Amino acid sequence: MKTYLVPIDFSEAAINAAELAALLSKQSAVKRIILMNAFYISPYQELLPNPDMFMIREQEIEEEVAERIQGLEKLKIDLSAKVKEGVEIEVVLQRSHLIRAVVNTIASREVDLVILGSIGNTSANAKSLGKHVTGISKASAAPVLIVPPTFIPQPISTAVLASDFLKVKDTFPADALNRMFGDKNVDLLVVNIDAKGRYNFDEPEYTIELAALKDILKGYNASYFNITDRDVIAGVLNFAAANNAQMVVALPHKYSFLQSVLHSSVSRQLAASSVVPVLLLK
């Protein structure tokens, strides 16, 4: 991983995500951290008054832009003392919608990982996953690391990887996992999700798939477990807490235990329950 992108709306959660990005730089080969703020004013806001007969003037827009850039520069200074030596921190202000700004930056700057707070200034409350998270997670071509505001930035030494041991051969995103953890000394706790009690672990199919998974992860210090909780998310998060994991890794949603992670009800539960960052691989 060479480039992290951290969207900044100056909320506590966003600042916390930036702090984690700085700390993770010491565990990775990252060369650049981009702190980006998106500021969008529609042409109608500039030309027409709002219901309160207030019309935004160009001078006010310029002052707001300058203030935001100043805030990004201050954060850059704060983080410069916390990143690995040699890591470059850039500040960017995009005059566009947040999701479009993120997508464009990922494409133009070859971003490897987006790190963002689970809530922000647009969130209704601390237990709601910010709309920005849902939108970015859907649109991003890069993996997304969602950081709860209560998580205290710390090195990642243990991560829970939630999987389905019977869907390994054709679906496991080995390259994405290696880009994230290949240069880190991280213990992987690989959890099989069996909420419906489908598996007979003596069956050859299971044995073959598990052997294939172990071969894929042979470069890691990996351990393997089984979870049968009907409440899948609670089961995984409880397992992570019991094993002092600092991260939960969700495979691409079309075949992961969080296949409906972007569904609103599940997202709210995830945001409210998780006390550790959740990595959505792509």
Describe what this molecule looks like in 3D.
The chain is an alpha/beta fold. The chain folds into two domains: 3-147, HUPs (Rossmann fold, 3-Layer(aba) Sandwich); 158-280, 3-Layer(aba) Sandwich (Rossmann fold), CATH 3.40.50.620. The protein contains nine helices and ten strands. It has a ten-stranded mixed β-sheet, sandwiched between helices. Helix 6 (174-181) links the parallel strand 6 and strand 7.
Assembly type: single chain
As a whole number of angstroms, the C-alpha radius of gyration is: 20 Å
How much beta, percentage-wise?
A: 15-25%
Overall average pLDDT = 82
CATH superfamily placement of the largest domain: HUPs
Read across the widest sheet, the strand sequence of neighbours is 3-2-1-4-5-10-9-6-7-8
CATH class of the largest domain: Alpha Beta
Low-confidence segments: 123-128, 260-268
